[in-house]
Amino acid sequence: MEEQENWKIWPPYEIFYIESLLTKTKTAISDYELLDKVITNQKLFEQNPSILIDLAENIINQGAAISRYLFPSRYKGAKSKIHKLRGEKLREALQIEQNNALEHRVVRDYAEHFDEKLDRFLSKPIAGNFTPYRVVFDSSELDEVTFVFRAYVVNEFKFICLEKEIIITPIIEEIYRIHNLLINFKNNGGRLK
User: Residue 15's domain spans which residues?
Assistant: First the structure.
């Protein structure tokens, strides 16, 4: 056990982090590929445009889950050390630089305590034109709506919920990059290097 304390992640256990993160990246990539398929196929788009909202939200949720691995919460006490070291090791291995798309709090915050944010948001009176969801091609199409719960802006790859806007492109680009590194790690012995 003494030797294990010299590692940020004990080398035989690195595969568990690789597999855990691959689950998240595979899901996000699958959702993005379906999103792209729906956008580029007129018939699919006309049948169910609202699926774009669900897919975009799932991509953000997977990005937030990956972010928690890379940037652990700031716990206090002895137990926080293992989380901090895990995050450091993963960021080093995955070449995560400052201002990474997954580091931005808007991505992570979106998924954390969403139920409570929804409670607070809906505790304020909403007057005017209200819609639970909307898929548009340009943000200007939302000008006629006072409040939209969830929206997807096709030409801008933008997801909107509770008045927060999140651009999907930098998130999914980073997820693809991480995914490719993880596949490489898995295929080369299950180590983070």
Answer: 3-112+169-187
